[in-house]
Predict the structure of L-ribulose-5-phosphate 4-epimerase.
Amino acid sequence: MVEDYKLSVYSANMELVKSGLVTFTWGNASAIDRAKGLVIIKPSGVAYDMMSPEDMTVVDLEGRIVEGRLKPSSDTPTHLVLYKAFPEIGGIAHFHSEFATSWAQAGTDIPLLGTTHADYFAGDVPCTREMTDKEIRGDYERETGNVIVERFTSGLLDPLQIPGVLVKNHGPFTWGESVAEAVFHAAVLEQVSKIAYFSHTLNRHYSMNSSLAEKHYSRKHGTGKYYGQ
Amino acid sequence: MVEDYKLSVYSANMELVKSGLVTFTWGNASAIDRAKGLVIIKPSGVAYDMMSPEDMTVVDLEGRIVEGRLKPSSDTPTHLVLYKAFPEIGGIAHFHSEFATSWAQAGTDIPLLGTTHADYFAGDVPCTREMTDKEIRGDYERETGNVIVERFTSGLLDPLQIPGVLVKNHGPFTWGESVAEAVFHAAVLEQVSKIAYFSHTLNRHYSMNSSLAEKHYSRKHGTGKYYGQ
Amino acid sequence: MVEDYKLSVYSANMELVKSGLVTFTWGNASAIDRAKGLVIIKPSGVAYDMMSPEDMTVVDLEGRIVEGRLKPSSDTPTHLVLYKAFPEIGGIAHFHSEFATSWAQAGTDIPLLGTTHADYFAGDVPCTREMTDKEIRGDYERETGNVIVERFTSGLLDPLQIPGVLVKNHGPFTWGESVAEAVFHAAVLEQVSKIAYFSHTLNRHYSMNSSLAEKHYSRKHGTGKYYGQ
Amino acid sequence: MVEDYKLSVYSANMELVKSGLVTFTWGNASAIDRAKGLVIIKPSGVAYDMMSPEDMTVVDLEGRIVEGRLKPSSDTPTHLVLYKAFPEIGGIAHFHSEFATSWAQAGTDIPLLGTTHADYFAGDVPCTREMTDKEIRGDYERETGNVIVERFTSGLLDPLQIPGVLVKNHGPFTWGESVAEAVFHAAVLEQVSKIAYFSHTLNRHYSMNSSLAEKHYSRKHGTGKYYGQ
């Protein structure tokens, strides 16, 4: 039914591990088949080296299992909220990499400090607000998606220009037009988080001309882009 | 007599090394056979690559060697105190991994800052108080066990919900229902310590809604747990 | 035409990657053939493992492609400004390594704190000033070269004695008499940046006798040098 | 003449590299044959992978080459001063490892914060005072040895109980009864420096009961030692 997606979701999950972004089973990636309205996602709590493409679970946008013998990732409701709210995205990655997670635990946005950041994120990487008791005790994973969407809506942020977020006290989610791009953005975010950590602990009185950030983002992504072949 | 335990204790010690938690011979792991009242532990100061399962030393709960030609780890009396005080645990690991040890040397608890921490530890990872001269000059390794137990007793902490501790100016001990789980908790603790280090040096004014911690711990360990298959 | 240079530029780019200085495609190295007035440089945005020596692009000092089917690195105009301003240099490397970039993002010079630094850089590693909106929106990559040259000119710095620079909010450039030496200086700069980071976060009230720096630089590079065979 | 020493000095130098303590050619190790009054040391500035045991240079205690076609390490005069002042030591290592060097650049002693430190160093790892212009411009490498000796003499430190030192703005030297032990102490010092770095940046208001340090040092090295077999 969605065999190609199962392979790309499997590969993306394995790439997350190979990139050093996942400890134990702490990560998951998914893709959406927009035509069929189906989401293909890693099963919950399965060891990566025991997993094969056929183990990917297929759910509809209400989270009902359509195909697969394993329970989907417990974070599936978060993915579903994001797919509904951000119609341009085709894949999502969630992980607990060391530096991005440390910013999420610190509870602050990752400031835009350099051109490597600006090449992929057109602004600070936002951190969500603290969730309320009610949200946590209710439909927690769905509410996690909701606070992400709230942050983008209230901040007038474009999810394609800012392809990732930190969930406070939890960790990062990244996305892209495909699940492969979501995982690429995961690796970029970790590298950006790491360099920002070192910069921030060296000198908290930094500054960056916002024109420089716009220049770098636009030379890679703007209408007149000229980076690459 | 306890050949299966020797193999699992040997494997757990080797896993500690493979996980990057041990420098030189600075670590040890043990298991208890509750039925026989015997503890199986790594011998003292032996190089890992020279060691085989038969080298594991077997002692009774008073520390008398029951089987084995090598002296047990010099930390054996600490293990024995913990096995007596915490009847639910089946294995213990001790090591000097970089980040967990740095918190032990700093002399502070590891604050609960994120969900990866909350998934395995239902609260801060406690640090013991400074030992007195009398405790150090007396039966030092046994007293080390005693200050750990004191911390759990006085803090009303459940050793299965908080499966590890920092001994001040020394390093971490972790435990579990088996020695394999003790070593798994060792790796989790090091990762948690590392991310908390980065968070703490980024922003010391952090906060975490305690409901979020309870939610994450319970979705993995509570009666209604739903993580994994 | 310049086949030898293509091979050495290709090798230098691959060495940048092997040295851990490059994430994804975030780096480039070039050489100049002074006799012919040609610069040989990595193509823009090409994956390293798909690249061969023949893919190196050859441009003249005005940036016109003389040989090669691929667009040169988007940073080519920066390289050209440096080759014109610093006639003694034969190769340039640009990269976004973790520690050097973090100092660039922090916007400060790397202070001369130790003899490993002094062995290769006869003073602080300078950081350029913030670029103006006009410079950024104009011929940005050429202006990046200009602010580097301005820093060396205004600071009376000798580019052979200080074979590298940090571009504020961007990252390092290094150079040398050949492209191989530029890449060697890249690796030295990253190591120097890393140790300076740790020193700076340990104790910001450091000092170094400038005679010690002069001694170390001169025992490797002075007229009476006596290090090595 | 001293073929066995050449082999052990060669092996110790290679072990320094394998342990990750040396970048490029920034390190050297030597041994002394006390009976013959000869010192066997790595040649200056030679790449490790081009080096063989026969390349080790043999000098007498005045630094005159007795055997070998290559110039000895430029740090040879420092080694000679230490061999003369510390008659119990048989080998010396010098290197610029990341964390030990960062403490040397910060210009402070490494505080005794934990038992892994106390197992091998019976106190803080001392840092030498700043050298004077006269010392630096004079017989610099010999004076480097002299400030080390001065620190041990004035501080009433026993070089066997404190088998290493930080030379301010330069880097560490370690030693031992053999060159192999000197290199082992090098690896211990780097690990101790690393953990102390993390502790120090976490919480500068640390404390350690000195009885604990004495206990750990003596259980490994005292007359009643009981660690190991």
User: Anything to note?
Assistant: Strands of chain C lie at 27-33, 38-41, 57-60, 65-67, 91-95, 164-167, 171-176. The CA atoms of residues 75 and 93 of chain C lie 11 Å apart. The domain at 3-221 of chain C is CATH 3.40.225.10 (L-fuculose-1-phosphate Aldolase).
